[in-house]
Amino acid sequence: MEHFNVGVIGSGPAGLSAAFPLQAAGQSVVIVEEYLWGGTCPNYGCDPKKVLLAAVEAKEQAEWMQHTGLIGHNEIDWPALMEHKMAYTDPVPARKIAGLDDAGITHKYGHAYFVDEHTVSTGTETFTADKWIIATGARPARLSVPGDELLHDNEDFLNLPKMPEEVAFIGAGFIAIEFAGIAAAAGTKVHVVAKHDVILREFDQDLTQDLIAQMESKGITFHWNFDTAAVEETADGRFDIVAADGRRVTSDMPFIAAGRAGNTEDLNLDAAGVEVAGNGIKVMADLRTTNPNIFAVGDVAESPVPKLTPTGAYEARYVAGLLTGTEPEEISYPAIPTMVYGSPKLGQVGMSAVEAEAKGMRVNSIDMTPWLAYWRHKEPIAKAKVVLNEKGVIIGATVLSAEADELLNYFTVAINQKQDKWAIKHNLYSYPSIASDMGFFA
Asked: Which of 8, 103, 243, 277 has the most crowded CB, counting CB atoms within 10 A?
C-alpha cells in the first residue's frame, strides 16, 4: 500500500495551493480528484464566468457611448462566445495534470472516502497518509420541493450551447445576480425569483437598491417574497416555478442559484472522526477538523470567512505552512474583498457601511458618476461608501460601478496596510485613472 506524508482530497484552487508548496518543501504528496482536475473555479465557476463577462462589458460600454463617439448596434453571438469560453476551459484539466506531473505530485482519479483516519480509498486503490487535507469544495444547494430535479445549475448555464429566450434564477445572491446580467445582455428575458424582498443581504442596501434599478432598466424582472414550493413542466415544454401563495414564473429554463453547500457526503467522515457543522466541516482556529491529523480548507470548511477562491487558496497555503513549520498555530485573515460581478459590479471589503453606521462610525457616501474615470465613457452609475475610524484610516469600503473590482483592490491594499490619509495621498498613480482617485476618499 502506498504511503505519503500528506494526502489532499480535491484538486481545485484550495487543494492545489496546498499540494504544490508541500511537495516543494520535501513532503511526499498525493492528490485525489473525482471530477474535473482544477475544480469548480477554472472549469465551471469564476473563470469562465469572467470570460463571458468580457463580451457583456464590451457591449455595455458601446451602448453607453452611442452618439457620443460610437454608432451602430452590437449583439452578443452566444455560440461564438461559448466557443471562446471553451478555448479557455477545455485545456484546464490536462494543464493541471501536467503541472502535477512536473512537480512530482502523485495524482489519483476517483471518489475518495476514508477507511480510517490515515487511510483513503477510491474503490479501486487504497493508500495512506500521515495527514489529510479535505478540499472538496461546494456544490449548488438544492431545494427540497417537488420538481427540484428540473432545475439547472451554474455548470449548465456556463455550458449552454444556445441561450434560451426566457430564463429564471431562483435566488438573490452572487450567482443569480451575475448570471441574470449575462443572460440579459445576451438578449434573453430574465426573471430573478427572490425568497425575500432584498438581494445580497450582506451588502449595503442603499447600493443594492441602485443595483436593482440598473438591472430593471435592462429588462430584468424581480419577483419578491417568492417562497418556491414546486417546479413543474408545462404542456408546451416550458417550466413553472410555483410559489407557496400560488404565483407562477414561467421560463424556458429555470436555474437554481440559492446558495451552496459543502461537499461532505460520501467521504465516510465518521470513520475518520471528522464532524460536520452547518454547511461544511467543523474546523478549529488552525483549520484542523475534530481529528487533529485531518484539515479542511476552502468552501468545504465551516470557517468564518467568505467562501471565495482566494480565501480557499489562502487557507490551503496556511495549512501547508503549518505542516512544514512556517506558520503559527492559528490562522489570521487579512481584509477579504468580496465582489458581485453584476451589471454593474458591487463589492465590499473590510467593515461594511451597515456595521459602521450601527456603531456610529463615520461613513462617507460618494457619488463618483461625474468623475472623469466614469464620465468619460458615460457610465450610468458609480458610487462608493467608505468607512473611516477616528484617526481617519480607511477600514471599509463598498463600491458600485462597472470598475468596482479594480477600485476595491486599491481599498483592500490600503486597509491591509492600515494606510492613513497621508499615506494614501503620498502614493503616486498614473493619471487620470481609477487608482488616482484614491486620494479623494481619505
From this structure: 8
Q: In whole angstroms, give the CA distance from residue 111 to residue 127.
A: 13
Q: Is the pLDDT of residue 145 over 90?
A: yes
User: Whole-prediction pTM value?
Assistant: 0.96
Check whether 299 is labelled as a binding-site residue: yes
Q: Above 90 in pLDDT, residue 421?
A: no
Torsion of CA 178, 182, 184, 186, to 10 degrees: -170
CATH topology of domain 2-140+261-323: FAD/NAD(P)-binding domain (3.50.50)
Give the whole-angstrom CA distance, residue 391 versus residue 18.
Answer: 39
Any known ligand binding at 175?
yes
Q: 259 among the known binding-site residues?
A: yes
User: Structurally, what CATH architecture does the domain formed by 148-258 represent?
Assistant: 3-Layer(bba) Sandwich (3.50)
Q: List, for residues 20-69, the tens digit of each pLDDT value.
A: 999 999 999 999 999 999 999 999 999 999 999 999 999 999 999 999 98
Q: Where are the domains of the chain?
A: 2-140+261-323, 148-258, 344-440
Residues 6 or more apart in contact with residue 15 via CB below 8 angstroms = 8, 9, 31, 33, 39, 133, 135, 297, 298, 316
173 belongs to an annotated ligand binding site: yes
- 2-140+261-323 and 148-258: same fold? yes
Burial class of residue 300 (count of CB atoms within 10 Å of its CB; 0-12, 13-18, 19+): buried
Overall average pLDDT of the 186-212 stretch: 97
Average pLDDT over residues 299-320: 97
pLDDT tens-digit readout, 344-379? 999 999 999 989 989 999 999 999 999 999 999 999
- Give the type of residue at 279: N
Side by side, the strands of the sheet bearing 239-243 are 228-233, 239-243, 248-251
User: Where does residue 264 fall: left (phi above 0), alpha (psi -120 to 50 degrees), or beta otherwise?
Assistant: alpha
What is the topology classification, in CATH, of domain 344-440? Enolase-like; domain 1 (3.30.390)
Cite the beta strand spans of 389-439 per DSSP E.
Answer: 394-401
Q: Name the 3-class secondary structure at 170.
A: strand
Nearby residues of 248 by Cβ (< 8 Å), 6 or more positions away: 240, 241, 242
